[in-house]
Amino acid sequence: MKIIPMTAEACLKRLEPADAEEMFWLTDVNRPYLRQWLPWLDMVREVKDTARFIALTIDQHHRRQGTHYGIWYNGRLAGTLGVHSIDWANRKTSIGYWLGAQFQGKGLMTQAVAAYLDHLVFGEWDLERVAIQAATGNHKSRAIPERLGFRLEGVLRSNEFLYDHYVDHAVYGMLAAEWRSRTSADESGSGT
Q1: Which of 32, 73, 105, 188 is the Cys-Cys partner for 78 at CB 3.0 to 4.6 Å?
Q2: 38-75: buried (b, 16+ CB within 10 Å) or exposed (e) per residue?
Q3: Angle at which helices 47-62 and 20-29 pack, to 10 degrees?
């Protein structure tokens, strides 16, 4: 079980089959909240649907196409993040994430994405580029790449069908050198 520390109260832990019940519960109790922006809620009706997703992420990891982590806060699953796939020829990927409403406002997702980028995307995998897409109206999700210094690269019109309508997506990008420069500046500025 791979664990990436974030804070004294929070860490990232690679999703495993034992997480299915808690992940389903978190999804289910947040269904109306998550439905505003995530198109897959209707496909998750039972614990076995969540277990199937976790099995796919484990297979994804074994095929070297990335991995998904649970975001754990005080011993409870708060949300998830992971890559959609990895384009090894071009050394790039895109990430997605979600957080239960009861865990909002604690800085968890910003810390989780930063740790994921440090340890995996620009660390272990040594990729050149990562993208984050979010519906233009999803201000909470868009705030994550903006806080982390990603560049807004454009808007994809009618990019995703969300139950009964299309939404535009803002596309943010970060290059490895930009991330390393940002984190170096943060480290050198912290001691002054």
Answers
A1: 73
A2: beebeebeebeebbebbeebbebbeeebbbbbbbbbee
A3: 120
Between 3.40.50.300, 3.10.20.310, 3.20.20.70, 3.40.630.30, what CATH number should domain 3-190 receive? 3.40.630.30
pLDDT tens-place string over residues 80-122: 999 999 999 999 999 999 999 999 999 999 999 999 999 999 9
Q: What is the pLDDT of residue 184?
A: 66
22 near 103, Cβ under 8 Å? no
Burial, 22: exposed, middle or buried (Cβ in 10 Å; 0-12, 13-18, 19+)?
middle
The domain locations on the chain are: 3-190
Query: What single DSSP character describes residue 127?
Result: -
The predicted model scores a pTM of 0.92
Q: Which helix (H) or strand (E) holds 12?
A: strand 10-14
Q: Where are the beta strands (DSSP E) in 43-150?
A: 68-73, 76-87, 92-99, 129-135
Whether 134 and 143 have beta carbons less than 8 Å apart is answered as: no
**Average of pLDDT values for 5-9?**
94
For residues 192 and 129, what is the distance between their CA atoms, to the nearest angstrom? Answer: 30
Give the rounded distance of the alpha carbon of 49 from its chain centre. 19
Give the whole-angstrom CA distance, residue 136 versus residue 170: 5
Q: Please enumerate in sequence order all residues whose Cβ is within 8 A of that of 139, keeping only pairs 6 or more positions apart, or say none.
A: none
Q: Which two tokens stand for residue 88?
A: 């090894």
Residue 164: predicted pLDDT = 93
